[in-house]
């Protein structure tokens, strides 16, 4: 049995595992990634790359590949609620095609439509381009033992077993995580929200078969309420139909799925089912995210309904939070309590996002309890009922469509490695995100000059922004040098940024979160806390 050493062993090569491997290599650290499958994606689990994830991709230099992915950038992204494609349309929330969507004022990037079968290959190519990342498919973790100074793992492939010794092990191995189960970590929440079955089907003439304008997501509502959805999964000729069930387990046959797709169209038509996959919507968060040398991340730590596109994007935030902290420990400048802050920061965010996703689902299927049957009637009475219902449903569903406050507005205000200044986050209404630089918040975006954002200053190490050249900063440089922590001091003479960051000095962490701000302070004490001493 051969033995190999790596700094970090990552179990699972989905988007989150690949992000962690890439981020570590970008920071100069080695990783060995094992994935028990061949990596092929036949049922894309996600298709929206959120703005925070795109900010990470911009940092890593791969955003252009996501923007230019094979998804049809000319395809409108409307969300629509309807009886069927040949029946009544109740309403829609218009969204432009990806090529036409403008940047939000709060970010240098925008969300992108890039399904997992397009996104995973982008991440894979990026990771494989880095010599410090070793990516192995068809390799399965079968056991591990955590010791005081390292972790010893056993991995199996078609060539036999091998032993891997690592400083840290991270389970990014999905909802059925072997790593989580081996650690004895339980999940808390609702194990079943709905049983759902997906079918990927192809139809080249789909948009010519009916009179409905193009869109991305279509919510199908019948007398029984919401019963299914159809998504334009590639903007061309592939679609994902989801039969949205309830908490009763039911296995749907190929013929049953075909009949439901025909019902969605409202008439007979030709199409090819490519794959069928049953799954369960859940609302679960792990009680613990690990400790010492073994951690979990992504779906291994939290599971939610896809309503809102929070799952993978939350996991990408996990990976970036974990990446810089592992780097700090392995490079010798991270304190004894630094790794404890991973759970302290990320678990509350998961609880918030998982709950929000469940509320989005409840809103979507609320028609099962409250639906005027006249919405299916002909004539003026039906027209009136459809208008009332359509307006109300459209207004209610906005919270799922406008989610910058979820993707960018998360805060680590209770983190032990954040130095509070007593300020509070803006009291935003739902669907509203106001940038602010209070400690624990994402450092705000401001265009410094064409094409250059404040966010482009962050990532490699700590950054101390100085907005007043008269404020002393040499003691910060000395304190950072003394502990070996990477620190760049950047003077900014920029009125908009100064107003938004709202302090003469602002210390930003390697993950782009504000760690401290003020006019003066004990540099040694501040760095000691933010580095996890």
Number of helices, where a helix is a run of at least 4 consecutive DSSP H or I residues = 13
Overall mean pLDDT stands at 96
Radius of gyration: 24 Å
Helix content: 25-40%
Overall shape: it is globular
Distance between the termini: 39 Å
Q: Give the percentage of residues in beta strands.
A: 25-35%
Total strand count, please?
24
The profile of the biggest β sheet is: 8 strands, mixed
Spans with pLDDT under 50 lasting ≥5 residues?
none
- Provide the structure class: alpha+beta
Note down, in words, how this protein is organized.
By secondary structure, the chain is an alpha+beta fold. 29% of the residues lie in helices and 26% in strands. It is built from 13 helices and 24 strands. It has helices at residues 15-26, 51-60, 63-67, 116-128, 178-183, 254-265, 311-331, 340-364, 379-401, 404-407, 474-483, 495-501, 523-530; strands at 2-11, 31-35, 48-49, 79-82, 89-93, 112-113, 133-137, 140-146, 151-157, 160-171, 187-202, 217-222, 225-231, 238-244, 272-286, 290-291, 294-296, 302-303, 447-449, 452-453, 462-466, 487-491, 505-508, 514-518. Strands 1, 2, 7, 8, 9, 10, 16 and 17 form an eight-stranded mixed beta sheet that branches. Strand 12 (217-222) and strand 13 (225-231) form a beta hairpin. The longest helix has 25 residues, at 340-364. It is globular. The model has no long low-confidence stretch (mean pLDDT 96).
């Amino acid at each position: 049995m051969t033995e190999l050493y790596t700094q970090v062993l990552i179990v699972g090569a989905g988007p989150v595992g690949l992000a962690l491997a890439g981020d570590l290599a970008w920071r100069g650290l080695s990783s060995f990634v094992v994935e028990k499958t061949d990596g092929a994606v036949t049922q894309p689990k996600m298709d929206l790359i959120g703005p925070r994830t795109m900010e990470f991709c911009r940092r890593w230099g791969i955003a252009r590949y996501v923007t230019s992915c094979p998804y049809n950038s000319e395809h409108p992204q409307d969300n629509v609620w309807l009886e069927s494609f040949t029946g009544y349309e109740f309403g829609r929330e218009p969204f432009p095609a990806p090529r036409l969507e403008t940047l939000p004022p709060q970010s240098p990037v925008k969300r992108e439509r890039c399904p997992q079968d397009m996104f995973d290959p982008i991440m894979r190519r990026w990771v494989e381009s880095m010599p410090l990342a070793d990516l192995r498919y068809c390799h399965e973790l079968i056991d591990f033992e955590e010791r005081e100074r390292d972790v010893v793992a056993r991995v199996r492939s078609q060539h036999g077993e091998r032993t891997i010794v690592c400083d840290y092990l991270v389970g990014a191995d999905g909802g059925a995580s072997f790593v989580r189960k081996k650690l004895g970590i339980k999940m808390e929440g609702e194990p079943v929200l709905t049983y759902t079955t997906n079918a990927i089907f192809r139809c080249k003439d789909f948009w010519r078969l009916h009179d409905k304008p193009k869109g991305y997501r279509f919510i199908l509502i019948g007398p029984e309420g919401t019963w299914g959805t159809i998504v334009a999964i590639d903007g061309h000729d592939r679609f994902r139909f989801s039969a949205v069930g309830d908490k009763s387990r039911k296995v749907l046959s190929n013929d049953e799925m075909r009949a439901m797709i025909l019902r969605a169209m409202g008439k007979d038509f030709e199409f090819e089912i490519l794959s069928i996959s049953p799954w369960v919507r859940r609302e679960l968060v792990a009680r613990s995210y690990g400790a010492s040398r073994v951690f979990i991340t992504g779906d291994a730590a939290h599971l939610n309904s896809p309503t809102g596109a929070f799952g993978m994007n939350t996991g990408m935030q996990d990976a970036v939070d974990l990446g810089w902290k592992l780097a700090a420990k392995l490079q010798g400048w991270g304190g004894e309590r630094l790794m404890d802050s991973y759970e302290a920061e990320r678990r509350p965010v998961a609880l918030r996002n998982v709950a929000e996703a469940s509320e989005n689902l409840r809103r979507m299927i609320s028609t099962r309890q409250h639906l005027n049957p006249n919405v299916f009637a002909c004539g003026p009475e039906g027209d009136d009922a459809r208008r009332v219902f359509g307006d109300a449903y459209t207004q209610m569903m906005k919270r799922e469509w406008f989610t910058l406050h979820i993707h960018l507005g998360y805060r680590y205000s209770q983190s032990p490695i954040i130095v509070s200044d007593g300020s509070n986050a803006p009291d935003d209404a739902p669907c509203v995100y106001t940038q602010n630089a209070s400690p624990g918040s994402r450092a705000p975006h401001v265009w410094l000059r064409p094409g250059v954002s404040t966010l482009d200053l962050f990532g490699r190490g700590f950054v101390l922004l100085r907005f007043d050249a008269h404020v002393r900063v040499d003691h910060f440089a000395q304190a950072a040098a003394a502990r070996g922590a990477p620190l760049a001091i950047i003077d900014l003479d920029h009125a908009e940024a100064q107003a938004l960051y709202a302090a003469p000095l602002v210390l930003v962490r390697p993950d782009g979160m504000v760690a401290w701000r003020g006019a003066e302070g004990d540099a040694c004490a501040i760095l000691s806390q933010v580095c996890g001493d």
